[in-house]
Amino acid sequence: MIKTLQNTLKQDKERFTVPRSVQDIIPIRRIWPDGVFQFGSKYSKTLRFSDINYAIASKEDKTAMFLSYSELLNALDTGSTTKITINNKRLDRRNFEQEILIPPKGDDLDGGRKEYNAMLLDKVTDSSNSVVQERYITLSVHKKNVEEARAFFDRTVHDASSRLNHMDSHCEEMDAADRLHILHDFYRVGEESEFRFDLRENMKNGRSFKDAICPDSMEFKKDHFIMGGKYGRVLFLKEYASYIKDSMINELTSLNRSLMLSIDIIPVPTDEAVREMQNRLLGVETNVTNWQRRQNANNNFSAVVPYDLEQQRKETREMLDDLTTRDQRMMFAVVTLVHLADSKEELDSDTETLQSIARKHLCQLTTLNWQQADGLVTALPLGLRRIDALRTLTTEALAVLMPFKAQEIWDRGGVYYGQNAISKNLIVADRSFSTATHSFWASPAPVNPSAPRRRWCHWRCPRRTISSSSIRNRSTAPSSKDWAARSSTSPPHLPTISTPWIWSRAMGTERTPWC
Predict the structure, then answer these.
(1) Is the pLDDT of residue 155 over 80?
(2) Which residue from 4, 97, 159, 199 lies 20 to 30 Å from 343 (Cα-Cα)?
(3) DSSP conformation letters of 49-69
(4) Mean pLDDT over all residues of the chain?
């Protein structure tokens, strides 16, 4: 066995204790405000990173993203373990109403606001867009104390963040409240808006942080568990195909249920990996030589090497070539998935759907029998791994398990623009956050009822403000001679921004003023 893997398994070995309460099922022993969690001698820290537009990218862009993600995997520290988690969680309806819906103002436009809000609420109640995805990277390492762990995290977190930013993925560190909020939303589905946690207040009153996140009850069966009023099941990827498409992880996480999919990664130093593959190749060559010697002893000098021995020699040489000449690294990985449902029948149906998706990619997704508790801890973004169904992969083989899909646009206080064609989620954007805020402004109705009602349409352009009445009948962009005619209903002043022309159909003169 490889020395790195042997040491990792020895360090991760824990003594089993029978839990006497629901709080004892949560393996966290100590937390710090900066987001460092302790499990025995192991410390972990979690980063949240945003999605990128991988599914809709061109072939050249996909290749560039794939290589960038491979560089991220190659940069993982060999003295630690890494967990990449995709979290499907229900949309918080109360938070959605506070951020997106337009509050009434007691005027004549409340009817339009009510209709707009009803349309948005109808959109989010649909099962196709009531689930949002979040992605995390959890780094864990065995250290003597928290100071050494913090020094390690400062180095590795900066490296991971810079590589993710190079892929146009925004990355941020999560503090203790953020990490506990993730666990609270999973353990207490439907109570997402009720999370309240103040570490200083809990320390002052002597309360445990586990009381704020633990479920009401937990019951583990042979092939599933019951958590509060929800049913759950943990699956793991048992058999891998020779060639896996990069869309398999996205298809597994496209199920509109509360689930978490985690990929645990144990990197191996290159020198140990090369030495191990050389020993493997030497063993295969020895078997081939012994087989040929036996055939020669029987006067069979034209015998052909059996297919299985020839295949072993070919695959071993290819992997050794990947490690030595193609800058690949050997890694051990295990894929686990936990999903929740409202009933046992719905849980069985969802499990069959997930297994059929894996079978479509020639893989086998199997239920963990009598290991649901260990599988649940492994699937959550804690930094622990209690399932030893490890698979040896190279960097490229592991990068095929691509966690990216399509970038979501969800700005706080933004405006609804439609639905994402890939994820079916709502597109809510605030253009004031963009670099080029192309838009047009409309002035309110004039104070004098006898004055003509004029709608002012403004293009953001270099040192020019254009009236919609001067371009209504044009089919080309306005020229430099088109200046806005100042009147009693002059448009508001806009800052001078050097942006390209934006051509739009001018609005009518008798429409209702904007809300």
Answers:
(1) yes
(2) 97
(3) E-----TTS-HHHHHHHHHHH
(4) 82
Q: CA-to-CA distance for 129 and 427, rounded, in angstroms?
A: 11
**Cα–Cα distance measured from residue 256 to residue 130, given in angstroms and rounded to the nearest whole number:** 8
Q: What is the pLDDT confidence band of residue 481, given thresholds at 50, 70 and 90?
A: very low
Helices 59-74 and 146-166 cross at an angle (nearest 10°) of 160
Indicate the pLDDT class of residue 118, thresholds 50, 70 and 90.
Answer: confident
Q: What's the number of CA atoms in the CB half-sphere (13 Å) around residue 265?
A: 27
Q: What is the dihedral sign for C-alpha 126, 127, 128, 133?
A: positive
Give the model's pLDDT for residue 128.
54
> Which element (helix H / strand E) includes 119?
helix 110-124
Q: CB of 209 within 8 A of CB of 180? A: yes
Rounded Cα distance, 165 and 345, in Å: 43
Tokens at 269, concatenated: 């130093």
| Tokens coding 418 | 């439609």
Q: Which residues, 6 or more positions from 156, have their beta carbon under 8 angstroms from its beta carbon? A: 77, 80, 139
Contact present, 48 and 135 (Cβ < 8 Å): yes
For residue 419, list its beta bridge partners: 426
Mapped onto helix, strand or coil, the DSSP state of residue 415 is strand
Fill in the DSSP letter of residue 497. -
CA dihedral 463, 467, 473, 478 (to 10 degrees): 0
Q: One-letter amino acid identity for 344?
A: K
The phi-psi region of residue 297 (left if phi > 0; otherwise alpha if psi is between -120 and 50; otherwise beta) is alpha
Under 8 Å CB-to-CB from 179, ≥6 apart: which residues?
A: 31, 35, 37, 46, 381
- Percentages of the chain per state (helix, strand, coil), in multiples of 5: 35, 20, 45
Confidence of residue 13 (pLDDT cuts 50, 70, 90): confident
CB 248 within 8 A of CB 297: no
- Give the helix/strand (H/E) hosting 88: strand 81-90
Note the pLDDT tens digit of each residue in 450-476: 555 444 444 443 333 333 333 334 344
User: If phi over 0 gives left and psi between -120 and 50 gives alpha, with beta otherwise, what is residue 190?
Assistant: left
User: What's the pLDDT score for residue 478?
Assistant: 42
Distance CA 183, CA 192 (A): 10
What percent of the chain is modeled with pLDDT above 70? 83
Q: How far is CA 50 from CA 138, 161, 173, in A?
A: 14, 11, 12
Is pLDDT of 487 > 70? no
pLDDT at 511: 35
pTM: 0.80
Residue 368: strand, helix, or coil: coil
Residue 253 CA neighbour count, 13 Å, CB half: 30
The pair of three-digit structure tokens given for residue 119, joined into one six-digit string: 């349309």
| pLDDT surpasses 80 at 403 | yes
Asked whether 166 and 52 are in contact (CB, 8 A), the reply is: no
